Model the fold of this input.
Amino acid sequence: MKYVVTGTGFIFKKHLQAINQIGGEIVDVCDISHGRGEEWKNIVKNSEADCVVVLTPNYLHYEIAKAANEAGKVVLCEKPLALKSEHVKDLAGRENIFVVQQLRYHPEVKRLEKQIDKNKKYDISIDVSVFRDRHYFDGWKGDFEKSGGPLFTLGVHYFELLLHLFGPAIEAQMNDFDGKTGKGIIKGANYDCRWRVSVGAKIDDPWKREFVISGQKINLSSKENLAEENLHQFVYQDLLKDKGITPTEALPAIELIEKLYESNK
Done:
């Protein structure tokens, strides 16, 4: 399969590695990670690639995914697929659009999928706190309109995993939010989840990612960033089989984040 990649930021190297591992070929690269121009439109439309990989800032995901789909390309988009649930619903009505949810391939997640009892009540705690310096906030990730804030840039990984493993949220509340840190409660039919997401952790404790299920701490990574885990290759292996996480599957986490932000207004 041939690929065109839009965006060459931090995550690009992981996709490059994965594409090489599955024997793919990158035929075009468009560096718009800093929002320079709209050259991506011509590249996406005219590229000989079979698949468009969307690695741009969050606010561009929907527009590029839609344009690539209309150009007849397979689409693989980093999460979040969009910053609005209405846009995800639009993409859900289209074929050959897939979302990068690499944590679903993690061995611990595979184990949990088999062990979780839907008839049992679980007490869950999520605490995802990292330190981000001035450079982070000066870029697009520090712009709420472009990034969707910390719940989309950081929390979406764990919110998606929570819903995937335990089911829909019945109640969702963010009790406090200062732009960098949010915390609250999410309740489902068989779980209560206390959560905290922060990009303003103390410098002496620069990152913490805790996912605790009824007292059992789940270790999904021992590294500073989840992308450092070598899981993207599995996403691409599924893509070659016309498989992957669809917009319909990605929608619940986007709707959940919308509810959390709305609850704090």
